[in-house]
Amino acid sequence: FGLAFHGASTVLAVTDDAGNTWRVVNDALPADLPAQLEFADSSHGYLWGGTPSAQGTVPLWVTSDGGRTWVRAPVGPVVSDVSAIGSDVWAVVGTRPISSLPVTAAYPATVEISTNNGTTWQPTAAAPPVSEEPGLSVADQDLELARITPSRAYVLSFAPARSAGATSLGQLGYTPDGGQTWQSRTDPCPVY
């Protein structure tokens, strides 16, 4: 599966021969570029990103028919990243809508989990020790999710640390147990 420009539209295309040929599956996606896409298998996929709505939301869209139709997932308001391992899907979510107004505070981020291909969602037992700034970027890509296994994952926030003498441009959280607990980790990108 891949996202492609076609005129003024973003389309979903699929290949069955390792990219030699492509066919359009859907030319009316519910999200535009810079949308992101992940498929767990040939049927179940996840689409997020693009231009925020007038309300400042960036929803997650779910398909169970190979991208022909999409439904909005009950998660948000701002989905920044998604990772699917089979039917086990995680989404890192900003808790405040994106706004063009100046942001003076960072807000907590959450991780929501679906174990049924994105049909139902629930937050992890604990929240990761990261925050996000809803106005940091128009696409709200200041949160990233990296899953190592179904239960081990990292969440990186590019929201600046706000403590006096902070030497970091972000925050890193790690869970070894599927979000039951989170630990702060040293940001690998310190300010010099």
Structure described in brief:
With 192 residues, the chain is mostly beta strands. It contains no helices and 16 strands.
Explain what this protein looks like in three dimensions:
The protein is mainly β. It has strands at residues 2-6, 9-14, 23-26, 36-39, 45-48, 60-63, 71-72, 78-85, 88-94, 107-114, 122-123, 131-132, 143-147, 153-157, 171-175, 183-185. Strands 8, 9, 10, 11 and 12 form a 5-stranded antiparallel sheet that branches. Strand 4 and strand 5 (45-48) form a beta hairpin. Mean pLDDT is 86; it is low at 136-140.
Q: Strand-and-helix sequence, N→C?
A: EEEEEEEEEEEEEEEE
Total helical segments: 0
Low-confidence stretches: 136-140
Query: What separation lies between the terminal Cα atoms?
Result: 40 Å
Shape descriptor reads globular
Average predicted confidence as pLDDT: 86
User: What fraction strand?
Assistant: 35-45%
Helical percentage: under 10%
Number of DSSP strands? 16
Q: Describe the biggest sheet?
A: 5 strands, antiparallel
- Cα radius of gyration in angstroms: 17 Å
